[in-house]
From TrEMBL:
HAMAP family: YJU2. This is Splicing factor YJU2. The lineage of its organism: Eukaryota, Metazoa, Ecdysozoa, Arthropoda, Hexapoda. It is found in: Nucleus. Part of the spliceosome which catalyzes two sequential transesterification reactions, first the excision of the non-coding intron from pre-mRNA and then the ligation of the coding exons to form the mature mRNA. Plays a role in stabilizing the structure of the spliceosome catalytic core and docking of the branch helix into the active site, producing 5'-exon and lariat intron-3'-intermediates.
Length: 288
């Protein structure tokens, strides 16, 4: 397998590399390389958008008479994918970026331009302060004034936070939330009612029956005959209930007894009228 790959070549003993003629190449020769678009661009001829990362077969060459701190600068040539217009850009080692030259315009340059503008303004300010001492003094005064304002605002924020720490937000919400307060009041009243019902005990059924049975029953005997001069009344008293204590006393206070009136005693029929009728009937029989 190693012989097929030809990794090692044979050099004869009398080989002299100086006798081999050298190839004559152009001084600034172009090479074909494979690269990706370094930024988003738009073709000026057809308006085709070329996004960052699109692959091209490009031609590379050195930029003559242009270097940056001894670093060589390269130029690349690509073609538009739609109209085949040539687009060229070169490296920018100063800003670690690429710079468009011809054939297209770079997109999304706002951030880069803003950074460059800020950098230029900062450099101009430094130069002005270095050349004008009064300007430097004014800038320092303005800077100290800004620092004092920032410290005052910071102190105000600290005081505000300190006041807010003493405020109980839950208590404030409960105070102004009337719906929640009413609902809690109803729950509290219901809870109190349940506790009172649990404390009151109604006792056993036998004791209740004894309490209800405390009624007076009057029985009257109607005597139809005149032989009995007066009717006799017998009074039946119920058995005495045990003394009420505790919960039984509460129940007796709650229950009101209703006494049933006894039946009225029937009056004995008068015998005067009957005697008159019997006398009248006897007189009629005699007359006949």
């Amino acid at each position: 397998m190693s012989e097929r790959k030809v990794l090692n070549k044979y050099y004869p003993p009398d080989f002299d590399p100086s006798k081999i003629p050298r190839m004559k190449l152009a001084k600034n020769r172009q090479y074909t390389v494979r690269l990706m678009a370094p930024f988003n661009m738009r073709c000026v001829t057809c308006g085709e958008y070329i996004y960052k990362g699109k692959k091209f077969n490009a031609r590379k060459e050195d930029v003559e008479n242009e270097t940056y701190l001894g670093i060589r600068i390269y130029r690349f040539y690509i073609k538009c994918t739609r109209c085949l217009q040539e687009i060229s850009f070169k490296t920018d080692p100063k800003n670690t970026d690429y710079e468009i030259e011809a054939g297209a315009t770079r997109n999304f340059m706002a951030l880069k331009l803003a950074e460059e503008q800020a950098r230029k303004e900062e450099e101009e300010q430094r130069e002005e302060e270095a050349n004008n001492p009064m300007k430097l003094l004014e800038n320092r005064t303005q800077q100290s004034r800004n620092e004092i304002e920032l410290l005052e605002s910071l102190e105000e924020l600290r005081d505000l936070n300190r006041r807010q720490q003493t405020i109980d937000y839950d208590q404030m919400l409960q105070q102004y939330d009337t719906t929640e307060t009413a609902r809690e009041r109803e729950e509290r009243l219901a809870r109190l009612d349940e506790e009172y019902i649990k404390t009151v005990s109604f006792g056993s059924s036998s004791s209740a029956a004894k309490v209800v049975a405390q009624e007076e029953v009057v029985e009257t005997i109607d005597l139809a005959k005149q032989s009995l001069p007066k009717h006799e009344e017998r009074r039946v008293e119920p058995p005495k209930a045990p003394p009420a204590t505790g919960n039984r006393l509460k129940m007796q206070n709650l229950i009101r007894r209703k006494e049933t009136p006894g039946p009225e005693a029937k009056k004995p029929a008068s015998t005067g009228g009957l005697s008159l009728l019997s006398a009248y009937s006897d007189s009629e029989s005699n007359s006949d």
